[in-house]
Amino acid sequence: MFGTLTARVGVAARGALLVASYLTLLAAAAFGWVGLFVVAALAAVLGEYAVERWSPATVSLLGKVGISRIYRQLSRDLSAVLLVAAEVPLIDSELTLLLLLPAAVWVIAVFAGAFNRMIDRRNPVSALVRNIDLGPVSSAPRPPEWATRFVGDRLPRVNILLLPGAVVTAVAGAVTPVFVAGAVAVGLAALVGGVVAVTWLRGRGTGQSPLLPAVQRWLDRDRPEVALYFAGPAKDVYQANMWLAPIEALGRRAVVLLRSKEAFNELADTRLPVVCVPVAPDFMNLDKSSIRTTLYAANVGPNIHMLREPGMKHVFVGHGDSDKAASVNPYSKVYDEVWVAGLAGRERYARAGVGVLDADIVEIGRPQLAGVHTFGSESVQRPFTVLYAPTWEGWLDDDPYHTSLVLMGERIVAGLLAVRPAVRLVYKPHPLTGSRSKQAKAVHDRIVAMIRAAGGDVDASNLDGPAHRVVTGRVPALFDCFNQTDLLVSDVSSVVSDFVQSQRPYVVANPAGLPEDEFRRSFPTSRAAYLLAADCGELEKIVAVTRAGDDPMTEARRELKTYLLGPADANPMDRFAEEIGRLCR
Questions:
Q1: Res. 398: pLDDT tops 90
Q2: DSSP states of 291-336 as a string?
Q3: Mean pLDDT in residue range 385-410
Q4: CA–CA separation, 273 vs 290, rounded Å?
Q5: How far apart are CA 75 and CA 21, in angstroms?
Q6: Is it the case that residue 161 has pLDDT exceeding 60?
Q7: How many CB atoms within 10 Å of residue 359?
Q8: Strands 274-276, 530-533: pairing kind
Q9: Is the dihedral angle over the CA atoms 33, 35, 38, 40 positive or is it negative?
């Protein structure tokens, strides 16, 4: 609760500062205070850039209270006119021209936006595809991307040129600079508007998407049997990415179905055909009758648009088994089957009592882990490496077990950097770290700074060499990091379950100080873990024990691996393929 309140106060404070900069700008312009005008203008322009890039919540709040981007841009243009009028004597024709120049940009922006909207309506883009040959698809011409990026309320941004023009005019006492700046702004706006208008004149379109019929023809021709369905946002697309390779390895006709253009752009490289249809009626009207099995990586509302298809089996595969409450979501009752890695997943649903029948649960192992090396299976030619992979802060402010990052992260990293003999630290946070909690984002930034100060690579694209690493990109992947790891430090998350495949030692953070027996009972994935209290006092000892090879948890990890991931002699990829085959038959 405190974290949410702090975040809201921060959003309100940023909004208030931005509004204050505009009010100061208008006042300075009206009274002819050039110095203050320059400072306020810089604050307003830089503040706009900052909130749009890093604080969308502030932009949303300002819109809700009636101070939208359009009003802010109008006040910025007005301030330039007021400053010139206050500092330079103008004749009537000059004042008229000074008002007409910014007004012309706004008029062009209105018409350009209208033309672009008409282009969209006559030839809507209702589908995106990858790795699919749709053949010739006729379509009406569209404006280039650089033009469409600036139509609408973004186009009047070119009037920002009036601000330096007005300052130079006020200092020099001549109106020419502001007129030149205004003319350049009108010229740029006219260029964008002209390109959009000419495109509108070149083609009338049909009002229907030419891509949807082409996608339907492909579905009818190639008749995919298996679908991976993902309707989440781009920030969560990692949940779908982890299933791409196993589905590729099936050797069956398959397709990835997405519902977000942004997620389509962020989806990892794959050889699988990919279809994105964002609009619900368009997606539901596609005939998908050839699909026999649909796999769902996440529980989201738009899943209903696929779940309504009666001729296929709907299977929830999730995005990793963990002891978090999210792993036993009651939503899972809607699927025909729920696939888990091992007995731990089955028992987790039984304990939760959320209505998922035991008969509907299938243990398939984790096919993604086929490339994770088990302990002692490879020769080690690298420094002793510790992977710190905390999970994200989650949606609940009062759950200390969502992440160790906020309460312990800096102590963990500082302790690992101070270990002697030195170890190599690889820090790989969850992709969503800091997306909800500003406090988590701040801690993450400080950890990155600590690793940078220790000579580490804070934008690592590989794990070669002895230097510390910060891995936040898609590459190296988490499982690649596993293969370079001698000791994992993590939280109650699916990272731990997957790492057990390696049978290497691991540490689970216990931020709230739960008694050891109770902790291991509540979170079965920690049964073979070293537990780390909030003060991190045992960290150096744990590193020393595991580095020396005198590890008392070895046998416990072997037993836990069977419990979490299934029998060691069962190939999870074979089990995955077998269950897919059963449903497709």
A1: no
A2: --EEEESS--GGGHHHHT-TTSEEEE-TT---SSGGGG-GGGGGSS
A3: 82
A4: 15
A5: 11
A6: yes
A7: 7
A8: unpaired
A9: negative
Say how many C-beta atoms besides its own lie within 10 A of residue 296's C-beta: 29
pLDDT confidence of residue 150: 83
The DSSP 8-state label assigned to residue 408 in this structure reads: I
Q: What percent of the chain has pLDDT over 70?
A: 94
- Mean pLDDT over the full length of the chain: 89
Cα(30)–Cα(150) distance, rounded to whole angstroms? 30
Polymer length in residues for the chain: 585
Distances (CA, A) of 364 to 13, 171, 327: 50, 75, 16
378 versus 22: the higher-pLDDT residue is: 22
Rounded Cα gap, residues 49 and 417, in angstroms: 36
Q: What's the pLDDT score for residue 262?
A: 92
Report H helices in 55-91: 56-64, 69-87
In angstroms, the Cα distances linking 316 to 23, 330, 334, 481 are 53, 12, 9, 27
How many other CB atoms are there within 10 angstroms of residue 96's CB atom?
11
**CA atoms lying within 13 Å on the CB side of residue 518:** 5
What's the pLDDT tens digit per position in 269-292?
A: 999 999 999 999 999 999 999 999
DSSP of 380-393:
--S--EEEEE----
DSSP per-residue letters across 284-295:
HHS--TT--EEE
**pLDDT at residue 117, as a whole number:** 85
For strands 128-130 and 274-276, give the pairing.
antiparallel
Q: Under a CB-based contact definition with an 8 Å cutoff, are residues 240 and 228 in contact?
A: yes
Instruction: Summarize the confidence of residues 541-551 as an average pLDDT.
Output: 89
Look up residue 153 and give its amino acid.
Answer: D
Give the pLDDT score at 206.
Answer: 57
Residue 146 is given by DSSP the state H
Token pair in block for residue 363: 């243990």
Among 353-362, 392-401, 495-504, which stretch is predicted with the lowest mean pLDDT? 392-401
Q: Is the pLDDT confidence value at 397 over 60?
A: no
Contacts of 207 (CB under 8 A, 6+ apart): 121, 122, 123, 124
Q: Which of 23, 20, 18 is nearest to 48 (CA)?
A: 18
Angle value at C-alpha 538, between 388 and 375, nearest 5 degrees: 50
Please give the pLDDT value at position 473. 84
Q: Which helix (H) or strand (E) holds 24?
A: helix 2-31
Structure tokens at 433: 């770290």
Task: Please give the model's pTM, rounded to 2 decimal places.
Answer: 0.70
Is there a contact between 573 and 249 (Cβ–Cβ < 8 Å)?
Answer: yes
| Cα of 368 vs its chain's centroid, Å | 21
Distance CA(472)–CA(470), nearest Å, equals 6
Q: Are strands 337-340 and 254-258 parallel, antiparallel or unpaired?
A: unpaired
Q: What is the pLDDT, as a whole number, of residue 475?
A: 85
Q: What residue spans of 366-476 are helical by DSSP H?
A: 410-418, 438-453
Q: Is the pLDDT of residue 75 over 60?
A: yes
- Residue 137: pLDDT band (50, 70, 90) is low
- Of the candidates 241, 403, 398, 425, the one whose C-alpha atom is nearest the C-alpha of residue 322 is 403
The residue among 402, 407, 389 whose CA lies nearest residue 534 is: 407
